[in-house]
């Protein structure tokens, strides 16, 4: 039977790149692998054909020879030399499959990867800060209980003066490779539990784990502009690694303490400022709270209840900007609940001069303020 074109076998074009070539072969090999098709005798031939095609096309020298001379260029005695033969030898097919699929089935280099040194777990800590800390940032000291390397054994788990011994069952790899047909399957070594080493004399302080639990104080630098739910990562401040492995990370989640004076809207702050009727009508200068302390605010004459006045640069910072937002002051006019005789007379005179009292606003200030945050 005539041999099919290698590009046709893998279903790729003649100008295919390395990445697409590898992807096409993986898909073809997975679909036609004999162990996945026990009831299809032709699957093994298709698998061999795809592996042969990939072995040639993935090698620049062989591919060039194949493009010029076809199958003769990569066969025995051809310019490409030493290609795949029709002898049925599958050894090199197994190597190819292990190389491409070892990361999926745990095969690969067998015996070179060590099982010791597992990474420590990540930790999470909730940190509550004041709204004022968002402006300039802050540095917080937190205490957390966590696993740290044992000082007595320096994290090895072995008693002082001794060392862990290489596991004889897996030669220190932590894995046992089982090969069946074309598959290489990796399993944790039962002799050492996947550690790759055996501790004959365990450390008395950590009982061979290489870690002990202790409370640790950690400094957290909170940058300006954080918001509710901002997550800060502190590399290496998580749980200590197992058997000398690297530590995990600490994630600090920010929570903002409520401030009754302000409502935050991104970089801006909203607040309310009560004024008297004379102040609103005649104009005045009042003091309002800001994150920087008390500040003067000018109330223009004729200010209506619900008017919003802007104080630039009195808001908070953001993580994406070095500047600050604004503070938006919602002015509302306070109506006195008790009037003495003279005050009533003056208001009645004002009402007569004004042609009667004005109708109240259809919507109150609080309703307008509520709409802003809904």
Task: Give your account of this protein's structure.
Strand 4 and strand 5 form a beta hairpin. The protein is elongated. It has 374 residues and is α+β, with helices and mostly antiparallel strands. Helix 2 packs antiparallel against helix 3. The chain starts with 5 loop residues before the first helix and ends with a helix. About 10% of the residues have low confidence. The chain has a four-stranded mixed beta sheet with strand order 10-11-17-14. It has three domains: 100 residues, Orthogonal Bundle (Helix Hairpins); 134 residues, Heat shock protein DnaJ, cysteine-rich domain (Chaperone, DNAj Protein, Chain A); 110 residues, Sandwich (HSP40/DNAj peptide-binding domain). It contains nine helices and 17 strands.
Number of strands: 17
Q: Any idea what the shape is? A: elongated
**What is the N-to-C order of secondary-structure elements (H for helix, E for strand)?**
HHHHHEHEEEEEEEEEEHEEEEEEHH
Helix count, DSSP H or I runs of 4 or more residues: 9
CATH topology of the largest domain: Chaperone, DNAj Protein, Chain A
What is the CATH superfamily classification of the largest domain? Heat shock protein DnaJ, cysteine-rich domain
Assign a percent range to the helix content: 10-25%
- The CATH architecture category of the largest domain equals Ribbon
Question: Structural class given helices, strands, pairing?
Answer: alpha+beta
Distance between the termini: 75 Å
Low-confidence stretches: 76-95, 102-115, 359-363
Largest sheet: 4 strands, mixed
Kindly provide the name of the CATH class of the largest domain. Mainly Beta
Mean pLDDT: 80
Number of folding domains? 3
Strand order of the largest sheet: 10-11-17-14
How much β-strand is present in the residues? 25-35%
CA radius of gyration: 38 Å
